[in-house]
Task: structure prediction
Amino acid sequence: MNSEPARNNSATGQPIIEIIKMHKWFDDFHVLKDINLAVHPQERIVVCGPSGSGKSTMIRCINRLEEHQRGQIIVNGIELTTDLKNIEKVRTEVGMVFQHFNLFPHLTILENLTVGPIWVRKTPKKEAEELAMHYLEIVKIPEQALKYPGQISGGQQQRVAIARSLCMKPKIMLFDEPTSAL
Amino acid sequence: MSTTTRSHGEEIRPPVTDVGILGWLKHHLFNGFFNSIATILILGLLLKFVPQFIQWAFIDSVWFTSGEECHAASGACWSVVTQNIRFNIFGYYPYEHQWRPLAAMIILVCMLIYSRDWNRWSKKLGYLWLAALFVMGLLMKGGLFGLVSVESTKWSGLPLTLLLSFFGILASYPLGVVLALGRQSKLPIIKSLCVVYIEMIRGVPLITMLFMSSVMFPLFLPEGVTVDKVLRAQAAIILFTAAYIAEVVRGGLQAMDKGQYEAAESLGLNYYQMMRLIILPQALKIVIPPTVGILISAFKDTSLVVIIALYDILNTTKSILSEPEWTGFSTEAYIFIAVIYYFCCFSMSQYSRRIEKELEYKQRDNKIS
Result:
């Protein structure tokens, strides 16, 4: 993937995601070549391209599900390096919705939504459940809260996946083709 | 125009051969040529051997006699079991104190039965178990509250078998899980340590481990320091079983979808949280059936402590049979032991099936708090 220089249309303040001259290889395959990107708060960006061009890889680099080998990625003021603590800090602020949703099948919908807030944000259980119900109402499936992911439809699973990310109140949301599996 | 007449209100019964006893026979025993032949063959074999067995085991048998009278009887001599039952079960534990291991075993069984319900698993149950373990240890060992102290070398029979297998299972399971996680570690030192441990243990029979723990291990200890023999056998069983558990758990971990790891990571969960909350609950559930297989075989393998001169229930039976009065009645004595082993193993597999069922992902009835 080759990128054009970063757009800077809303140049007010610091970008929340900044990718500078980033390269990534899968073994010998040079998948991301010299990526530069700056995203500002409130901006919505769509990345398009043919399959295999590295769109997913790029956004997975932003929360370090993939490692980049050269260049810099700075998210919310924190540079992604091998430092595990920093990576966890970044992931707390970056929500991600996956192509296959990846809900936790052994937890109820409600538990899927509260596991992040309770264990990462240390929110009290009760508060986390209220927050979860709030987002379930926004995505219009509060009545499914006590079911397991295997018991609801694909479309409902997708909404749960979005709600699960929103429950962490992230500053950044990454969507990796969340509608392609429907 | 053709008309069909139908008698209303009169139900037509299915053919006689499809319902009742005849129907059952037809569907289950004679549904096809080969199945019919198999049914007839098996029936023939049963008719040949079952009456003979009943004649031997029940009709001609003697139950509460001395050894001499047994030799005269034509049937089974269950006296070998009934007359020696206390030695068989409790071995060399002092005769007048044998109520103590009995009480300890009853406590253990009651605790296991009580804990089989998943909903009862709470902190309180944990404390209850600690208290129960303490009481059981006290009953076995004595030395406090006016109970006479009994050396662990005297522990034998069924209590020893249950002790070795219960603690063997209890300790080897978490150890196995840790080893499996270590084998998947990204840190090369931890990974290679775990691989070497697992492969070394799996390459060695349990008998060797027991021999090493009882013969070689004391040689390395400084003079005057001794480690209890039962404890050494226990450690060998734990270390051995853990390696096998580790491989089964690794299978469960590898069966996990990579997306589960990614979803957990993307929420910001750290490694321990991810493993504890997301990965292990799913992976361990997948491998319940093979795990129980290993635990059952670990239970049966405790009988190998015979070779380091510990008297488990199999060895007490052997020493009964070596008495002149009871030689020649090994069939009866071993049938009794087989029944005990079968009962324990069957309970274990039922126990696990129950846990598996309770862990099915079904809708919870509890309301949101």
Strands of chain A lie at 17-26, 29-39, 70-75, 78-79, 94-97, 172-175. The longest strand of chain A covers residues 29-39.
